[in-house]
Amino acid sequence: MNSVLIIGSSNKVSRALIDLYARQGFNLILTWNKNKLDNESINKIKDRYRVDVKSVKLDLMDFNSHKPLCDSIAEDLIGVITTAGYYPDPVRAMENSEEAIKCISVNYLGLCSMINIISNIFENRKKGFIVGISSVSGERGRQKNYIYGSSKSGFTTYLSGLRNKLHSSGVHVMTVIPGYIRETGENKYLSSTPDYLAKSIFTSQQKRRDVIYVKWYWKYILFIVNIIPEFIFKRTNI
After folding, report:
1. Which CATH class is domain 3-233?
2. Taking Cα atoms as reference points, which of 170, 166, 165, 174 lies closest to residue 202?
3. Is 29 strand, coil or helix?
4. Under 8 Å between Cβ of 98 and 51
């Protein structure tokens, strides 16, 4: 059976995705850096769905480790989903170069490094899928979080170019713009629960969609934001 790589397995979105893909019979390769999925949870997934689950350490900032890791898991790999990310303290990121570099390295450079290697494998095989979770923050730079926003903007553009490159080889590349993700009841009209987001990702990936706004109205909110003239936008505080 084919395997799906989930980059970042410690968050609630990835946990929901793990359940959805295992239920469909996919073997799973789960990456972790600081928070490893415990053996009890892994064994429960194996027993419940009769699939193989591997847990591998991945440091997105250790670029030299990426190719050996990808080579070691490439044999049955059919898809990759990125849920890993780092949201820095905005003020600290503006004032501290190390914080800014970490934000850009995790959210953009590290993911691009991993996906570049995997996309070459998929392109040669002429099959596979790549799902990247970006952000509404990447649609236009705002004073509150422009370091984070620029990393997500770069990732969105990267996925768009990769989709263009791989289309003729039959490899599917999907960009996910989730809006806000909530764990409780706050902001329920502009946000999604991890389970809702995971189901949207799975369904849309199966349908081979290109770009999804998990809550449809974000597409129109961002359209309005993007057409505001710069001489007006620079005076705002949104």
Report:
1. alpha beta
2. 174
3. strand
4. no
